[in-house]
Specification:
By secondary structure, this protein is mainly alpha-helical. Helices cover 83% and strands 0% of the residues.
Amino acid sequence: VAFMAIYERLTPYRELVEVARGNTAAAVAFLGATLGFLFPLMSASAHSVEWLDFVIWGLVSGVVQFSVVMAFRWRKSIYQHIRDGNLAVALMLMTVHVALGGMNAASMVV
């Protein structure tokens, strides 16, 4: 829940408000970020030796996902497209979030 609240504050619009309005593109982008955050947490819960490992990987996962937002924030048009309901742009952003989350999750198994 904390991740979702922070993530929504970093985006130039309120995604949950957009989702409540029926904006599928905003829902897809938010889903991608959430999955990108959760995949490493699932891997950490399976592979962590102690709870501190899990917490550290949770923080790393959050930083990676927040970095995606900050990296794309300079291209405000991306977020404007999502706000306007452009599903293609949302799917591309979702792909970036999920791909980085997957790489993050896989890196803790090595």
